[in-house]
Amino acid sequence: MKRLLQLMLALAAIPSFAAEEEENPFAYVEYDYEHWYVDAGPAVVVPQGGGDMGRRAGAMARIGYYADDFLAVEASAAWMERGAGLGLRGLWHWWGYEKFDPFFTFGANGWIDGDAGPSLGTGTFWHFDDNWSVRFDADATLGLDGETEMIYQLGLSVQYAF
């Protein structure tokens, strides 16, 4: 009996090597919202349906503010090879994950050459930590004011939240 007790005490003293739980990038996390963010990166604009607006490549920058867990408001500026544009949109997170974070956008875009209208889009973030993310988004602007019927925009950017 004494030997059994000694064996049990010896086994209890051995550190446990239980496998640590791996980080799940799709685990739901509640973020500390109500913060500002900025991002910048390359963008491509592809107009469809006539008009003088041609395909453009360039850069885009955004500044935004998270009002709550799901909704942000952002302003954007794009500098393209043959023009520039401005946008104002809302960003709605319909899912809130730790690493992978998809969203929808809604708002309006306008271009210096006169093409402007409402826009809808979608995209995703890949969060590296609480401050740094990579963002991919695609949106379509209905050309209500101008000759171009539809303007598609693709962007890839690095975002910093503060």
- pLDDT < 50 runs, ≥5 residues: none
Name the overall outline: elongated
**Helical residues, percent:** under 10%
Q: Quote the beta fraction.
A: over 45%
CATH architecture: Beta Barrel
* E-strand count: 8
Task: Explain what the structure shows.
The protein is mainly beta and 162 residues long. The chain has a single domain, classed as Beta Barrel (Porin), CATH 2.40.160. The chain has 1 helix and 8 strands, in the order H-E-E-E-E-E-E-E-E. An 8-stranded antiparallel beta barrel has the order 1-2-3-4-5-6-7-8. Strand 1 and strand 2 form a beta hairpin. The longest helix has 12 residues. The N and C termini lie far apart (63 Å).
List the helices and strands and how they pair.
Elements: H1 2-13, E1 36-48, E2 56-66, E3 71-80, E4 83-92, E5 100-111, E6 116-127, E7 132-142, E8 150-161
Antiparallel strand pairs: 1-2, 1-8, 2-3, 3-4, 4-5, 5-6, 6-7, 7-8
